[in-house]
Amino acid sequence: MQIATHVEELQRQLAAAAPPDDSEVAARLAAALEPAVRLAILEALSEAAGEITRELAPGSVDVRLRGRDVEFVVARPQTEPATAGAVTTPSGQVVLAAAASDDPDDAPARTTLRLPDSLKARAEAAATADGLSLNTWLVRAVAAAVEPAPPAARGSSSAYTGWVR
């Protein structure tokens, strides 16, 4: 997006608003205001991108400055198949669909999980940090909690016995 045209239009309007005998002063004032006008436009666009990002979460819109041009970068969230997504109901419940397992006879099942808002927010943050959906992250956490720990390999202990000189 080129903001130069908007800045130039503002300069023309300022020059047109000045009395004829002060046109030189208006032109100098318009030239001096150019950096401030560019900054004000960039701040307005950044605020708009922030509001759009809040509505698109977990996607985002970033504003980047390339030379004198403004660029918008849209990051869309990764999507998963509908059977693997978590759905939040209007009452705040998280309804999960289990991720696919290695067992061909293990069909996905749905369950409702009620979490305190603060815990849900922390789980969403952890899932985002891992680059996963909340559903996938929760399925992995539950699987890790119910699977038995692998037996320790022989000799992998950090404890030593014996005499030291």
Protein architecture, described:
With 165 residues, the protein is an alpha+beta fold. It folds into 2 domains: 4-75, no CATH class; 82-146, no CATH class. It is built from 4 helices and 5 strands. It has helices at residues 4-17, 23-56, 117-129, 134-146, and strands at residues 60-66, 69-75, 87-88, 94-97, 110-113. The strands form 2 sheets. The protein has a 3-stranded antiparallel beta sheet with strand order 3-4-5, with no helix packed on it. Strands 1-2 form a two-stranded antiparallel ribbon. A hairpin with a 5-residue loop joins β3 and β4 (94-97). α1 runs antiparallel to α2 (23-56) and α3 crosses α4 (134-146). The longest helix has 34 residues, at 23-56. The radius of gyration is 29 Å and the shape is rod-shaped.
Write the layout of secondary structure elements.
Layout: H1 4-17, H2 23-56, E1 60-66, E2 69-75, E3 87-88, E4 94-97, E5 110-113, H3 117-129, H4 134-146
Antiparallel strand pairs: 1-2, 3-4, 4-5
Helix pairs in contact: 1-2, 3-4
The tally of domains stands at 2
Uncertain spans: 80-84
Number of helices: 4
The radius of gyration over CA amounts to 29 Å
Molecular shape: rod-shaped
Question: Mind describing the biggest β-sheet?
Answer: 3 strands, antiparallel
Q: Give the class from helix and strand content and strand pairing.
A: alpha+beta
Terminal-residue CA separation = 74 Å
**Secondary structure: helix percent:** 40-55%
Task: Compute the average pLDDT.
Answer: 75
What percentage of the residues does DSSP assign to strands (E)? 5-15%
- Compute the number of strand runs: 5
